[in-house]
Amino acid sequence: MNQAGVEPEDLEQYRRELTGYCYRMLGSGFEAEDAVQETMLRAWRSASGFEGRSSVRSWLYRIATNICLDMLRGRQRRARPMELGPASPPDESYLGPRLTENKWVSPIADDRVLPQDADPAEIAEVRETIRLAFVTALQHLPARQRAVLILCEVLRWQATEAAALLGTSVAAVNSALQRARATLAALPVEERPGAVVSGQADLLARYVDAFQRYDLSALVSVLHEDAIQSMPPFALWLRGPEDITSWMVQPGPSACRGSLLIPVSDANGCPAYGQFKPDPAGGFQPWALQVIEISGDRISGMQFFLDTERVFPGFGLPPHLDKDGRPEASWA
């Protein structure tokens, strides 16, 4: 024990909620993990100077906020392909170049951020605030407004608590909160977060079956009429079952025929699958983490994250499957 009586477990118990906070601030699961690790290191190094004038939780949030604000300084906002331009025609020539990772809101596994031993209502509420659309909408806000909105409306902090953490006045917090709400309300309809349904085991089973058989008629039957498919790190995105299925029979994309979908921990409050496509050398190679969004009784979004070397390890997915779909090898 150090002089202030702060033990490692006093810090570690906040790792999940801090990861969720940093993820909403930064829009990147990778950067959120880095920010929380740096928070823990700074807290432990300075624990002997912690005088207990605030709770350990508030103290950690103050450190994490400062780290996030530093990381966001001078950066462009992260987005989804849908925020960068109109829907693309289903033509492989429109795919364009791969853009860098820092352009995108990246996924995060639910089990990294959801509270343990919480009641179902609390878990459902937290899931709503890590949806890809919600996290993307937050990226439209200046960093300090973003922090205020997350602290006050997501984490339910009082304005006095947020003001103390940010070193500002209650009036300034309330003003920032009002401006943040106005900015989100003014976003185009397609960029605002909407309700996303979870569960729907039968619908998901039909989707997996249709995708693995590459039965496009069956796939159309589970897609919403305004369904969206995106494929970061490419800016191309598609709207509607007709364009999505037309894209899937293009020469390049059709190489996904015969893929396997491996269910993983939910991502961003939504069902998720690791997609492995046939490897010419044998077995199956990683292709995408699919995050599936459901609205009503149909699939409304299929977000395919293709940066498998970074994304797959965080979901416990292997770098290769054998011909029978069994994991083999491990990430270096």
What does this structure look like?
The chain has helices at residues 8-12, 15-26, 29-45, 56-72, 120-128, 132-138, 143-154, 159-166, 170-185, 201-213, 216-220, 241-248, 308-311; strands at 223-230, 237-239, 260-267, 270-278, 284-295, 298-305. The chain is an alpha+beta fold. Among the domains are: 1-75, RNA polymerase sigma factor, region 2, helix turn helix motif (Rna Polymerase Sigma Factor, Chain: A, Orthogonal Bundle), CATH 1.10.1740; 201-315, Roll (Nuclear Transport Factor 2, Chain: A). Strand 1 (223-230) and strand 2 (237-239) form a beta hairpin. The longest helix is centred in the N-terminal third of the chain and has 17 residues, at 29-45. The two termini are 36 Å apart.
Protein topology:
Layout: H1 8-12, H2 15-26, H3 29-45, H4 56-72, H5 120-128, H6 132-138, H7 143-154, H8 159-166, H9 170-185, H10 201-213, H11 216-220, E1 223-230, E2 237-239, H12 241-248, E3 260-267, E4 270-278, E5 284-295, E6 298-305, H13 308-311
Parallel strand pairs: 1-6
Antiparallel strand pairs: 1-2, 3-4, 4-5, 5-6
Helix pairs in contact: 2-3, 2-4, 3-4, 7-9, 8-9
